[in-house]
Amino acid sequence: MKKISEFKQYNGGIFVTQFTLNGKYIVSGGDERLIRLHNTEKQKLIKTYASPCKEVLDIKITRDNGNIICCGNDTSIYSIDVMTSSILRKYGQHETRINCIEFNNQYNVIASGSFDMKVKLWDLISKSNTPLMSLNQAKDSITSISIEDNQLFTTSMDGFIRVYDLRKGLIISDDIKKPLTSLSIINSTTISLSSIEDSSINIYNRKDINIIHTYNNHFNKKIRINTGISLNKKLIFTGDETGKIYQYNLVNQNYSYLKVSNSIIDCISMNPTKQQIVYGTFDGKIGLLDY
C-alpha cells in the first residue's frame, strides 16, 4: 500500500466515504452534519451539502451520479440532488437512527437498516412513502447490508448473519455467536464478517456453514469499521483504532499494514475502477491509498 494524498482536515469525525461508480469522485460525511463531494484526481472539494439526517452514518450515490442518498441520526433516509442541493425525497418509518443503506443491483430499490432492529426496502421510482417490505427478524441493531442479485444480506449486533431470498421469500439465519458490525461479499459462497468483540474479520463459508479463517491483527473494539474487497477478490482491507489500514491476503493468509493517522480509521471505500482506497478518520481527515 502507498499513501497518495490526504485532504484538508475537517471539523469532526468522518464516518463514511464512498466512491462514485466511475471512481472519479468521493462523497463523505460524519458528525459535522455536512456531506462533501471531492474530485479524486485533483483532490479538490467540489461542493458541500447540509446534511438533512444530522450526523451522517452512510451514503450511497445513484448510478448516474445525480443523487446522493444518505442516512444517519434520524428516522428517515434522504435523496439529495447533486446539482441543486435540494432534497428530492424523504423515506422514513424507522423508530430511531439508521445505520446503513444499500441499493439493489438495478438501483431502483434501497434498503435501510436501523438501530430499531428492522430492515426496510424502499421503491425509488414510486412516490409512495410506504416501504415495499419490512424485515423484523433481528434481535439487536442492524449494522450492515449488502445486496447481490435477489439476495439481501444483513449483519446485526445479535450475532446473526441473515440472508433473505427476496424472490422466493426465504430466509437463512446463521448464528456466528458474537456481535457483527460489517460484512463484505467475496464470492457466491464466501463472505467476510467483522466483529468488535475480538477485533476479528471472519471468512465465512455459507455452503459449509463455518468460519474457514479469522484475521485479528488489527485493533477494533469500540466502533463499527467496515471492510473492502480488492478488485481481484484476493485481498481484504480494513481500518483500525490505532490509525492503521490493514491488508489481509485471502490466498496465503499473510497481512501487512500502513500507518496513515494518529486517529481512528472510521471507514474505508474501494475504488470500483482501479486499485485505490479512500479512508476517513475520527479527527476529520480523508486520504487516498494505492494498493
UniProtKB/TrEMBL annotation:
Keywords for the protein's UniProt record, in alphabetical order: Cytoplasm, Kinase, Oxidoreductase, Repeat, Transferase, WD repeat
Stored SUPFAM superfamilies: WD40 repeat-like
Residue spans crossing the bilayer: none
WD repeat spans: 91-124
GO process annotations (BP): mRNA splicing, via spliceosome
Recorded GO MF terms: 2-alkenal reductase [NAD(P)H] activity; kinase activity
Record-linked Pfam families: WD40
GO cellular component labels: catalytic step 2 spliceosome; cytoplasm
Location(s) in or outside the cell: Cytoplasm
EC number: 1.3.1.74
InterPro entries the record matches: WD40/YVTN_repeat-like_dom_sf, WD40_repeat_CS, WD40_repeat_dom_sf, WD40_rpt, WD_repeat_MORG1
PANTHER family named among the record's database cross-references: WD REPEAT DOMAIN-CONTAINING PROTEIN 83 (PTHR22842:SF3), WD40 REPEAT PROTEIN (PTHR22842)
Family of the protein in this entry: Belongs to the WD repeat MORG1 family.
Protein's name according to its UniProt entry: Mitogen-activated protein kinase organizer, putative
Lineage of the species this protein comes from: Eukaryota, Amoebozoa, Evosea, Archamoebae, Mastigamoebida
